[in-house]
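quick q for whoever's on today - can somebody do inverse folding on this one?? i tried earlier but teh output was garbage lol. tokens:
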């Protein structure tokens, strides 16, 4: 816990002046050659993001499984290690299943390598990652970590819609709001302790509503939605802007299909572009879930979704990341801190505001 607190304290004072470096040239798309749906997802994503053919990596394993065993994964990992080059900084996993490897999520297994240090029996913490809240521009070069994100949803068509939203998000600078919900579920409401502080931190750069409620409804401007519930009502009754992030802190949100709790895919199917959930019992350790303040800070500072979300989780071994990795609404923006410890955007010395990349960050 002390380790986590030190990182949180560091967050308040660090200023990110680095733009995202994970892009279509440094992201590899992993494909299961035995799964026609995986191949179709990869092809659609490659076209949408203009990903070079050299970055498409074909793997081979049985399709349709919810989980891989440790031994099955190690065979796949060995094959991947032969095919990936050192320029690759992150992965997009182009399949809807599997989402788990033994006691780890599949995104963490591919990113960190399978290790029981990232697992936990009973209610215990797991190994932390140095990528957490870092200023790293190249996670593999700096930390030997390739953050991963699944291109998954409730259906193939929903995956394609997810990809389209991610592309549409770039440089969009939406006039949107962060909704931070303090719920009646005391076991899953552990992140709410920081919500009032987050509202003050972002007061001058982004609209934040810290609400005591179990759900929101009929909101038209959602970019961030962080809550804690087994199931969230009215997920499909809001409008989520392109690039939106949402998650509900609960034990089995990352159990993607046929879960007794709400699957995080409900967020994706409702229009969210990035989400996160745990695949095995994490207990209510905040370190195992996204830190809203860090995810927001990194995203508003021009990090791609893959970077911002991964940097917000100290102990991601049990959690699966779902979304479009390269979505970047605030690409090229730089969020700074003034002498009163208030966030503000540094001046954009653009030559024009016609091209999307020159849009004002405010």
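ok took a stab at it. sequence:
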């Amino acid at each position: 816990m002390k380790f986590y607190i030190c990182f949180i304290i560091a967050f308040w004072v660090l200023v990110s002046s680095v733009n995202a470096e994970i892009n279509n040239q440094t992201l590899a798309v992993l494909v299961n050659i035995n799964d026609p749906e995986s191949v179709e997802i990869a092809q659609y994503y490659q076209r949408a993001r203009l990903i070079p053919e050299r970055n498409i990596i074909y793997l081979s394993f049985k399709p349709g499984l919810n989980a891989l065993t440790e031994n099955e994964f190690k065979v796949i990992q060995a094959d991947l290690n032969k095919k990936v080059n050192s320029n690759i900084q992150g992965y997009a996993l182009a399949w809807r299943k599997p989402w788990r490897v033994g006691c780890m999520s599949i995104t963490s297994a591919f990113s960190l390598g399978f290790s029981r240090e990232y697992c936990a029996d009973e209610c215990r913490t797991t190994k932390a990652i140095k990528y957490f809240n870092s200023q790293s521009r190249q996670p593999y070069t700096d930390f030997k970590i390739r953050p991963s994100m699944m291109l998954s949803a409730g259906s193939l068509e929903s995956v394609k819609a997810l990809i389209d939203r991610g592309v549409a998000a770039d440089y969009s600078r939406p006039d949107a709001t962060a909704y931070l919900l303090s719920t009646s579920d005391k076991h899953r409401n552990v992140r709410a302790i920081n919500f009032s502080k987050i509202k003050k931190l972002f007061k001058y750069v982004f609209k934040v509503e810290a609400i005591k409620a179990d759900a929101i409804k009929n909101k038209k401007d959602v970019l961030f939605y962080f809550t804690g519930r087994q199931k969230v009502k009215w997920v499909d009754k809001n409008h989520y802007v392109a690039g939106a992030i949402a998650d509900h802190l609960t034990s089995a949100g990352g159990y993607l299909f046929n879960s007794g709790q709400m699957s995080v895919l409900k967020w994706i199917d409702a229009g969210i572009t990035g989400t996160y959930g745990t695949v095995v019992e994490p207990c209510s350790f905040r370190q195992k879930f996204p830190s809203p303040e860090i995810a927001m800070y990194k995203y508003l500072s021009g990090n791609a979704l893959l970077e911002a979300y991964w940097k917000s989780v100290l102990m991601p071994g049990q959690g699966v990341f779902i979304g479009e990795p390269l979505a970047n609404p605030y690409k090229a923006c730089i969020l700074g801190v003034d002498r009163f410890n208030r966030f503000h955007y540094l001046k954009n010395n653009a030559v024009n505001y016609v091209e999307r990349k020159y849009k004002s960050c405010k």
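fwiw DSSP finds ten helices and 15 strands in the chain. also The chain has one domain: 2-345. so keep that in mind when u check it
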